[in-house]
Amino acid sequence: MSEDLTIVQGDKTAQYENLLPQIKGLLEGESDLIANLANVAAAIHQQFQHLWVGFYWVKGEELVLGPFQGPIACTRIKKGKGVCGTAWEKSTTLIVPDVEKFPGHIACSSLSKSEIVLPLMKSGTVQGVLDIDSTEYATFDEIDAHYLSAIVNLIPL
C-alpha cells in the first residue's frame, strides 16, 4: 500500500485509468470498511477536486453520513429522499446535471450544482452510496459512472 497518490492531468478517462489501480492498491489487504471508505473518498477528492466526495451508509430506514472529503454534510437522509435516497431506493446510479432541477433535492451545500450517486451493493442489497458533488453544472457523465462503478466494486463489503 502506498500513502502517496500520483495525480495526473488530462482527460477524465486518463485520470480514472491512473486512479483505479492506485485505489486497488489502497484497498488490498485492508479489511476495515471505514478505513477503506475514507481512503477511497480521499483519493477521488484529491484526483478530481470535486466539492464533496463521500459515503452514506444504510442504517435502518436512513442513510447515515460516513467518511467524506469536503464541507460538512447532511447527517441523515431518508430512503427515497434527495438524490442519495432515490439512488438507494431505486438501486441505481443517478447522474444529475443540475441539482436544482431534481425533484426533492436536499441542499446540503448551496455550492453544489451537479451530482452523481452510486449504490454499493452486496448480495443484491444496497449497503450504502457513494455521493459526489461538483460546483459546476453537468460535471458527471457515463465515463464517471463507468469508472466510479469499477471503484465501488473494489471495496470489500
Give a nutshell description of this structure.
The protein has four helices and six strands; from the N terminus they run ααβββαβββα. By secondary structure, it is of the alpha+beta class. The chain has a single domain, classed as GAF domain (Beta-Lactamase, 2-Layer Sandwich).
Walkthrough of the structure:
The protein is of the alpha+beta class. The protein has a single domain (12-154), classed as Beta-Lactamase (2-Layer Sandwich), CATH 3.30.450.40. Helix content is 34%, strand content 26%. It contains 4 helices and 6 strands, in the order ααβββαβββα. α1 packs antiparallel against α2 (33-48) and α1 (12-27) runs parallel beside α4 (142-154). The two termini are 19 Å apart. The mean pLDDT is 95.
Determine Rg (CA atoms, Å): 14 Å
Instruction: Please give the domain count.
Output: 1
Count the helices. How many? 4
As a percent range, the share of helical residues equals 25-40%
Could you name the CATH topology?
Beta-Lactamase
Largest β sheet strand count, sense and barrel closure: 6 strands, antiparallel
For this structure, what is the CATH class? Alpha Beta
Instruction: Bin the strand percentage.
Output: 25-35%
Mean pLDDT: 95
What class do helices, strands and sheet pairing give?
A: alpha+beta
- Low-pLDDT regions: none
Keywords:
about 160 residues, alpha+beta, Beta-Lactamase, 6 strands
Helix and strand topology:
Layout (H helix, E strand, L loop, with lengths): L11 H16 L5 H16 L3 E8 L2 E8 L6 E3 L3 H9 L3 E3 L17 E9 L2 E10 L7 H13 L3
Antiparallel strand pairs: 1-2, 1-6, 2-3, 4-5, 5-6
